[in-house]
Amino acid sequence: MSETTEQSRTQLPDGGTEPVSTRKATRRGGGDPGSRGRTTIADGVVEKIAGLAARDVVGVHAMGSGMSRTFGAVRDRVPGGSTKAVTRGVKAEVGEVQTALDLEIVVDYGVSITEVSQDVRENVIAAVERMTGLEVVEVNIAVSDVKLPEEEDEEPESRLQ
């Protein structure tokens, strides 16, 4: 036998030799590590992102209908009850790669509802797509009220400071 062949064999206890199994260095799992597995995003996550993005638009006074804002104000006064405040007026349907959103907003008096709606739609789509990677297929906006300058806010101020 040649010297290289002899080196690639292992000695067995009975004096015989056995070929050494050689392995090629391979990456386990194959492919990019970032693509292994699946990420799921809950409806509530998308609702929070959309709610915050919608509130950032000038002309949006509040989110949700008058009734949901009233209940929300009561819930906010209960310790630990304000978790829904961010998602008030937002409903999301999330699939594996797409999402659809329904928003209910209250606009300030004097602003263009069509411009505010367009700005809300653009801001929400940009934020949700950037943060989640989901494709936003639609953002439906319902304007449920207009906040007049002389109207008081329905949400009472806290007595604590």
Question: What secondary-structure arrangement, pairings included, does this model have?
Answer:
Elements: H1 3-7, E1 9-11, E2 17-19, H2 43-55, E3 60-63, H3 66-77, E4 90-94, E5 98-108, H4 113-132, E6 135-147
Parallel strand pairs: 5-6
Antiparallel strand pairs: 1-2, 3-5, 4-5
Helix pairs in contact: 2-4
Molecular structure report:
The protein contains four helices and six strands. Strand 1 and strand 2 form a beta hairpin. With 161 residues, it is an alpha+beta fold. Helix 2 (43-55) crosses helix 4 (113-132). Helices cover 31% and strands 24% of the residues. The strands form two sheets. Strands 3, 4, 5 and 6 form a four-stranded mixed beta sheet that branches.
Task: List its salient traits.
161 residues; alpha+beta; four-stranded mixed beta sheet; two-stranded antiparallel sheet; 4 helices; 6 strands; 31% helix; rod-shaped
